[in-house]
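User: Modeling request: complex.
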Amino acid sequence: MQTWIDNLTGGPPTSPLVYLTFMLGACVSTLGFIAVLALFLIWLERKVAGHMQSRLGPMQVGGWHGWAQSIADGFKLFLKEDITPASADRLLFKLAPYIVFAGSFTAFVVIPWSQRMVIADMNIGIFYVLAITSLVVVGILMAGWASNNKWSLFGAMRGVAQIVSYELPAALSLVAVVMWVGSLKLTDIVGSQAGWFWNWHVFRGFPFFTIGALIYYISALAETNRVPFDIPEAESELVAGYHTEYTGIRFAMFFLAEYANMFLVSAIAAVAYFGGWYTGIPYLDFIPGPIVLVVKALALVFVMMWLRWTLPRLRVDQLMALCWKYMIPIAFFNLIGIGILMLITGRA
Amino acid sequence: MSGITSYFRNIYEGVTTVLYGMRVTMKYLKSPAITLQYPMEKMVMFERFRGLLHNRAEDCIGCGQCVRACPVDCFTMVIQKAGKDEDLGLTRDGTAKKLHLYQFDIDTLKCMWCNLCTEVCPTECLLMTGEYEVSSYQRDGWHLRFAIEEPPPGFDMEEARLKQNRITNPVTYAGAADPKSLVIPEGSARPLSGAAEFDWMASRQAQVAAKGAKAHEAKPAPEPKPVSESKPAPPESKPAPPEAEPAGE
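Assistant: Request completed. Predicted assembly structure:
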């Protein structure tokens, strides 16, 4: 973004204050985008869930297929009473939703919406994303512990175990991509997928990158606590898991954070494996990059919703077995395979 | 070795079953939803649905069978015998009416929807419609009044009602509307589906007309059967009886 601002002004390097203002503006607009996106995704989830169950979903609020349902729900949550359990740890209780939300929101600054449209094009892009999304773990643990409710604590502990475990296969599959590209910068990762759609990482280096994409996607499902990995939320088992005791806006923050996180991991998957802002057909490259990336991320989010309404929930030991016994060994073999492929093709 | 094969079989089965499930869900996503958006779309009831009662007063002969058959005594009927020279007209199936019908009320609050009253009605003027939305803001919202004749001046309705009905102290509903306004008129805004729309009377008229025509037809005399044709004779006589059946079944 700094280079973009420099190019905009054209002349001598601008003062840090101007940078700061631009950065703040970009962050606020990203926050607005995430909020609207989360509202849209919640509505979409309810419609998709409805139609997959032969029913209609929201139809009344706002007229056409209840598009304003999420807005009405958000408004309702704002009006709810703010209850903090008497024996809860007040500071942690109040801080937890914001940390969970911050964990996913701060990773949005590195997503490359197009060649130059990045808020912060860091040299350590992918590494930053993986690190900052781990903040969610701290937030969940705070929520579960501070609620002073043993079921919330169960949900939080399971959630933490799940997220921490599934970070490994996710990181391993992304490391394979980084190895191939040779840079941690997200714009470089997308840049190596220019041209036709068979240049996309998911189709290259067959079969390793395909498997890698699948592993990353499944780990992403586990990271965002989506079915079949939603033991921490476990709607019918633990009431609501770690966010049982949260009402009103605090609950809205968790909810928003979940959908923002879903979009984030889908966007990272699109960037790392599915071509980022490239349409895959060079003749269609006049379509603006952000639109292409958002469409790809939304398609992956739709697959997440599709899976939610197809699969039953995994038991916590099945979940952990899947991670440690299947995903991590396969991710390692994937990494080795990519390395050998690179040696063979002379990319190393 | 079996450990490794089961490991890979697990992976294979895991992936394939997930994909199979996703195909099922996508099929449901693409097929239309089966929700009926009540109250904008209402379910139309089947033909024999036991909904709200409706009486076609012009066909009612005032026999009182329905009143006697009702297990909960929800009918209130006031009749008066017609004079010798009075012509009250005919019902649609040709029965002459011999009784004035001054009051025919059905208290839906008491009705138990058992259909016994419609079964005994000889002219089939009392029917159960397909109307199932029978909630109201007033207690007498569905107190149905079907009589169309006004009693003559000087006729003591109260005494006649007490004498002719088993209910001696009916509840009078406060704020009762104009007696005629609560009758569901023919072709009203709320269409009656099911039994009422099936025009029993029209089909009955057709049956009666067919029977009457057949009765006047000269029956052909049975042909003298030659002895040599005794075998082909029986198949000839068989079609004749079934032909007369449909009119009078």
